[in-house]
Amino acid sequence: MDIAVLVKQSLDVQELRVDQDTGKIYIEDAPTKAGDIELNATEEAVRLKEKLGGKAIAIMLSTWGSSGKRQKEAREALTRVLAMGLDGAVLIMGEGAEKGDTYVIAKVLAEEIRDKFRLVLAAEGSEDNFSGLLPARLAAELGWPYVAYATAIEVEGDYVKVTRSLEDFEEVVKVKLPAVISVTQEINKPRVPKLVEIVKAKKKPMDQKDFSPHVEPKLVIRELKVPKVERKQIVIEGDVEEAAEKLIQALKEEGVL
Amino acid sequence: MADFDVIVVGAGPAGSVASYLLAKRGYTVLTVERGKRPGAKNMFGGRLYSWSLERIFPEFWKEAPVEREVTKEVLGFLHGDRGVEIRLSTKPEGRSFTLLRAKFDQWLAEKAEDAGAEVISGFKVEGPLIRDGRVVGIVAEGDEEMGAEVVIAADGALSFMAEKAGLRPKLSKEDFAVGAKEVIELPKEVIEDRFGLSKDEGAAQLYVGDLTEGVIGGGFIYTNKESVSLGVVMRIGSLASKVSEVSTAMWEITEKFKSHPMIRRYLEGGKLVEYSAHIIPETQFMRGVKLYTDGMVVVGDAAGFCVNYGVTVRGMDFAIESARAAAEAVHHALESGDTSARSLSRYQEILSKGMLRELETARKAVDLMEDERLYSSIPRIAVKTLEHLFLVDDKPKENLYSFLRKELSEEGISLLSALLLGWKALRSM
Question: Which chain B positions have a beta carbon within 8 Å of A202's beta carbon?
Fold first, then answer.
């Protein structure tokens, strides 16, 4: 059974620089990487593959531009997951992809996945945007069942048994394959690849394809900005009673009390 | 058969240059870098002297991500809130460039990759793999062994590779300086205006004075395209010997440097975008450091090839030159099938014809740099003497000679020892 793992090229949010004064976010300067939860999805794919046979392939659709730097980073991110034991990778990249919303991206990915895979694993949300919408949209495009927040996956013949972690309880569901499943970080502990595995991963097949959607995005991002937090900077003076009085008055004026 | 012909530990300038040259010759090369990316975890003042890299990539600055070509050299003396700056203006001839390592190191590493080296980042190497007294590869994190005919240790100032292979003694505090650096963003035009620069030209400015409270060291400013690199370097040995007198922490000294009226005007309105601190080797050029053993050579900072003459601070150019020499020696060793210490000694032979001689000269300069008066009395006298020359008030002026004599004796320096110091300075430059 062949498995596709969705690996997003996420911004490394820890290295994201912002300008508090102007609200500007320096997206081009920020490096990208494979998201942490995608490493869990990869680990699960490799475990299932080792048990059931077949291939497990990473699919990345790069949405942070297609510059040389981004290509290099995308390949590095894919090398990282390939080193964990995946068999190959598909990188979809090209102009216009940065404007793609989950609607467009789900369509493009569905085309790539439809006839080739029986199971799609994804992270419950990407590390940068964390909308968590894509796996569901993809499932809808494919017409496959979708199970979110998996903490355990077991394949039983034509069915897959998934344990879902919900707020107050766990739910065990059984769906017929093919299916799309999103996983949480609790599902497993991703293996740390060895040096020799990274060296070998560089030689694994990586298929780069052009991003060419047939539809327009429904969501247009006009601007990305840092939320501005402004302080009132009011200093209250006087003795305790007087100050307390003024403070209460000020809080009332602000509508806090 | 080893896994690779060559394993290079560290993808800084030395590591990437060695990887590039050997991969280009057709050897299988694995380069392992501990940082997330090449250039991610080092510290560097800001300037590269071109000569050694030009031997490998002629006119590299046309392609490499350099910031500005240095055409203004400034030596400054600070005393209190006053200061003296001596400025040299030169023509742009490709001699030295300011740069930011995050970009530059990635460029060099890509050169190595394009030549066929496998560069793997974000991976820690624990040490050399030693069998029967010879280095036969590396031990990576998780006790993973990887074999190589020759290992090149380019793992920087604190080289565990060299130490674990028994090539360097446990270094002492005398062998290191500590540096703190900030990158402050400013618009291009503002930088060019304040530092008196034409487009793409840059300034390298070094300062000594009472800001280091008598500790050997000083401040530096290098102009990049749209930022300045600024910081303070202090010798750890000197710092330790004065620990009871020095009341200020490293970051406070950096702050003090930044708020000096002469320095502040360069930085006004700038935005701090990066802060780093690192140890800098000042190993007195391989005092007890061996450059090679059976199956391994040591290059760059790992070998202590870093010199601070006061007015010139050099490390990266020596690192690149040592890598070139090492690659040459390793090539001969692999070609002849003899990677023993004796065969690899060719590395030191190549160096001793050129670079090591230069380091020998530098040793003399460093002896001079160790004179602590340079960091306290001399800046003070320089400032006061020029004030004496330029400032006019209602009191009659003393002649310069008797003024100087008085100032020197106040500092407890005899005229003779001042002359000697001057002579030593001239001789060592």
Answer: 118
User: Using an 8 Å Cβ cutoff, are B322 and B359 in contact?
Assistant: no
Contact indicator for A162, A152 with CB cutoff of 8 Å: yes
- The residue of chain A with its CA nearest to that of B138 is A195
Query: Is A3-226 a CATH 3.40.50.620 domain?
Result: yes
**Residues on chain B touching A196 (C-beta within 8 angstroms):** 3, 144, 146
Which CATH number do you get for residue B256? 3.30.9.90
Give the residue from B119, B123, B129 with the most A CB atoms within 10 Å of its CB, the best one to mutate.
B123
- pLDDT for residue B428 is more than 90: no
Are B112 and B215 part of one and the same domain?
no
Residue in B closest to A73 by C-alpha: B37
Residue B129 lies in a domain: yes
DSSP-derived pairing of the beta strands B29-32 and B118-120: parallel
Q: Which class for B282: exposed (0-12), middle (13-18), buried (19 or more C-beta within 10 A)? A: buried
Contacts of A72 in chain B (CB under 8 A): 110
Q: B85's torsion region: left (phi>0), alpha (psi -120 to 50) or beta? A: beta
Q: What percent of chain A has pLDDT over 70?
A: 100
The helix/strand/coil state of B308 is strand
What is the distance in angstroms between the Cα of A36 and the nearest Cα belonging to chain B?
15
B329 with B295, same domain: the answer is yes
Tokens of B198: 């034409």
Interface probe for A, chosen from B6, B7, B36, B106 (most Cβ of A below 10 Å), is B36
pLDDT tens per residue, range A196-244? 999 999 999 999 999 988 899 999 888 888 887 777 888 888 889 999 9
**pLDDT tens track for A28-52:** 889 999 999 999 999 999 999 999 9
ipTM of the complex: 0.78
- Please give the tally of structural domains in chain B: 3
Q: Does B272 touch chain A (CB under 8 A)?
A: no
> Are both B12 and B50 inside the same structural domain?
yes
Which chain B residues contact residue A84 at CB under 8 A? Answer: none
In a domain, B250, yes or no: yes
